[in-house]
Automatic annotation (TrEMBL):
One Gene Ontology molecular-function label: hydrolase activity
Protein name: DEAD/DEAH box helicase
Biological source species: Streptacidiphilus cavernicola
Keywords assigned by UniProt, alphabetized: ATP-binding, Helicase, Hydrolase, Nucleotide-binding
Pfam families tied to this protein: Helicase_C, SNF2-rel_dom
EC class (word): hydrolase
């Protein structure tokens, strides 16, 4: 009788666990279905809006000219969207439209609609806030709040529910000793085996604290924002996480990213090896996108690599995920080396996005932090200059580091500098090294080679100018084991529109005088900022004021970038009290902690705000997606600087269209600079924007700033000299 009672109790506990697991599964599926329904509603609306912009004569193209659209146009059907929505009888009412033409029109419109739908991704617009958008952010809210733990709980619940459903059904006869004895031998053994399976599931559930996990999941799934405004506020501050969850729950709502794009166009064999690693995300607090999972796996499988993703794709979280995977496997010590400007951001990201402990090995308490890292483990975060603190540890006292991450790795592209030598000494003794940089090369292909030499020096043959360069295919295969890059346009379907405008403004008389003086003196920096020489009469400064005034009136946040501190000072004086929140200028003299505080204030401002920053400071390492307007006060000598600056705003998490205004002056250094840099930009794209970049002659990329400045100065001196007889 004792065994019977034990089996009955076991069965009762199994039934209880099955009920709680099944409730979680059912609630989760219902929540996912609500998300998918609302996402499809938004997608249908976006598709229809795009069809309403397609002229009706496109139907003729689809039918190879067989459909005559003049009758449709005469009847008032101007767009494909109108035809797609119309019923057949509405088309038949139009003079000259018969049954065959109506059917052809509907079929052709449906074909275009399918193509448009496949190309359309769900975009949640915080400025629209219609019922479907509000409903979607409300339904996504509990998933974002709960984090990846909710998905883990659902998977555990699904497994437990499925196993228990079978085991409880097969083991039911074992609850009664009498009934069990009446069964045939085979059925009796099956019933007892089923009860044993129930016991196994219960044991695993107890070890995994399944009761608590399922109860928490049930609470999480019922969580709702206190109001629609709270849901939208959460979306605007955590848009990247909302879209990540949306992609997980309703993959079809976001444009499907081709595998070759998310995998950086790596050779198939290497991509398969990377996919073969199961990433342990148990120590992460946030969900990852598919391409981010692949990036972390790549770093782990290839061990010594460059992650060169375009700005805004989350290189930091991919590095954290790789470290978290190793930590889940028992590794204890990790090291991040970064510029001082992003040190605070690294500390925040590690603590908020993972369960790893971050130690700030920088500033007055660096010694204490270093000792805590040595004894407790975690992630030590220091600067390039701070690497000397590690030298202060007694011989043999430095812990074995499981992974070294070097952020903004292009800082060490010159192997002759002290910081580069420190990094090489550090990385030479570490099995896993991950370089992060969205700009692996600015002017010379040798810079790319230099970074590779830290990691896997044998990948590329030494450069010999008398030998022909590697072809595209050979170069792609050569660097693939150490270089992975993905671009925003390839992997982020939800990014809002990026609109570039070149704003041409004539010199004022005072500015032109200043420009001529700068050209005569061969002063390249003065030439570049001559348009601001007399702020009270500057046409560029006046246009900057107009752009900012329009943005402030619309409630938008604005980033203003210039290479020159005095240009930003002039802008600051001009704005005065006309801007509700005016921050900066951020410059090289701004302390790293203060930079982050300024960025935080900019993002937290409830209305319009303007942030002034030197482009070489504000364009690196700062997340500024609160802004939807970017102004570049002058073109930059290095295309990467402009790209980085724009990417501070147009990045994962941006919810609004981003407008970029570049202020230019005709017949000046600006116009000549753009012409000379056009080819340099093409070469930069060929090398740095894709993993399968081709290698042209290295000297073709050697457009250094001094040589470029000399070319422009000489050309402008000649141009102005030729104009002199005509009156100046």
């Amino acid at each position: 009788m004792g065994q019977g009672r034990d089996r009955r109790e076991l069965y009762r506990l199994g039934e209880r666990l099955h009920r709680s697991a099944t409730e979680v599964v059912d609630e989760y599926r219902a929540a996912v279905e609500r998300v998918r329904t609302l996402a499809e509603e938004l997608r249908d609306r976006e598709t229809q809006a795009s069809l309403d912009e397609v002229p009706v004569d496109r139907l003729s193209d689809v039918t190879d000219g067989r459909l005559r659209v003049t009758a449709l146009e005469a009847a008032g059907f101007r767009t494909v969207g109108q035809v797609h929505r119309a019923e057949a009888y509405e088309l038949l009412r139009a003079p000259g439209i018969g049954r065959q033409s109506a059917d052809q029109a509907k079929v052709a419109a449906a074909q275009l609609a399918r193509a448009a739908r496949e190309a359309t991704a769900v975009r949640i617009d915080p400025d629209r806030r219609d019922p479907a958008g509000t409903g979607l952010v409300t339904e996504l809210f509990p998933f974002v709040q709960a984090g990846p733990g909710l998905l883990g709980a659902q998977r555990s619940a699904e497994q437990a529910s499925a196993r228990l459903a079978v085991a409880l059904a097969d083991g039911a006869p074992a609850r009664s000793a009498l009934r069990l004895r009446l069964l045939g031998r085979a059925r009796r053994e099956a019933a007892l085996a089923a009860v044993a399976a129930v016991a196994e599931v219960l044991t695993g559930a107890e070890q995994g604290r399944a009761d608590e996990v399922f109860a928490q999941a049930a609470v999480d799934l019922l969580r709702r924002p206190s109001s629609p405004d709270q849901a939208w506020l959460e979306f605007e501050t955590r848009a990247a996480e909302f879209y990540t969850v949306l992609g997980q729950l309703a993959e079809e709502a976001l444009r499907r990213v081709p595998a070759e794009s998310s995998e950086g166009h790596l050779p198939d064999r290497l991509a398969r090896a990377v996919r073969g690693l199961e990433l342990d995300e148990s120590l992460l607090r946030v969900s990852l996108r598919g391409y981010q999972v692949f990036g972390a796996r790549y770093a782990l499988v290839q061990r010594r690599t460059i992650l060169g993703d375009e700005m805004g794709l989350g290189k930091t979280i991919q590095a954290i995920a790789a470290m978290a995977h190793l930590a889940a496997g028992g590794e204890r010590h990790f090291l991040v080396v970064c510029p001082a400007s992003v040190l605070v951001n690294w500390l925040r990201e590690i603590e908020s996005r993972s369960r790893l402990t971050a130690h700030r090995v920088h500033g007055t308490h660096r010694g204490t932090a270093l000792l805590e890292w040595r004894h407790e483990g975690g992630v030590a975060v220091t600067t390039f200059e701070g690497l000397r603190y590690l030298d202060g540890l007694p011989a043999g006292a430095a812990p074995a580091t499981a992974m070294v991450v070097v952020d903004e790795a292009h800082y060490v592209k010159n192997p002759q500098t002290l910081r580069a030598r420190k990094v090489r000494a550090l990385t030479d003794g570490c099995e896993r090294v991950l370089f992060l940089t969205g700009t692996v090369m600015e002017n010379r292909v040798e810079e790319f080679r230099a970074l590779l030499s830290y990691l896997q020096p044998g990948l590329l043959p030494p450069y010999r100018p008398w030998e022909p360069p590697l072809g595209a295919e050979a170069f792609r295969h050569a660097v693939a084991p150490a270089y992975l890059r993905r671009n925003q346009s390839d992997v982020l379907s939800e990014l809002p529109l990026l609109v570039h405008s070149d704003e041409w403004q004539e010199f004022s008389a005072a500015d032109e005088d200043a420009y001529r003086q700068a050209v005569a003196a061969a002063n390249f920096p003065a030439m570049r900022r001559a348009a601001y020489a007399v702020p009270e009469q500057s046409a560029k400064l006046r246009r900057l004021g107009e752009i900012v005034a329009e943005a402030v009136a619309a409630g938008e946040k604005v980033l203003v970038f210039s290479y020159f501190r005095d240009v930003l000072t002039a802008a600051q004086k001009m704005f005065g009290e006309r801007v509700p929140v005016l921050l900066g200028p951020l410059s090289g003299r701004t302390e790293p902690g203060e930079r982050q505080q300024v960025v935080d204030r900019f993002g937290a401002a409830p209305g319009p705000a303007v942030l002034l920053a030197q482009i070489q400071v504000g364009g690196i390492g700062l997340n500024l997606q609160a802004a939807s307007v970017v102004v570049l006060c002058e073109p930059q000598v290095k295309p990467a600087l402009e790209q980085q600056a724009v990417a501070r705003a147009h990045r994962m998490g941006q919810t609004r269209r981003v407008r970029v205004h570049r202020l230019l002056t005709p017949d000046s250094v600006d116009q000549r600079l753009l012409r000379l840099l056009a080819r340099k930009q093409d070469l930069f794209d060929a090398y740095a924007r894709r993993s399968d970049a081709a290698e042209a002659s290295p000297e073709a990329l050697d457009i250094s700033e001094p040589s470029l400045a000399r070319q422009i100065i000489e050309a402008e001196q000649q141009r102005l000299a030729e104009q002199a007889p005509s009156g100046r």
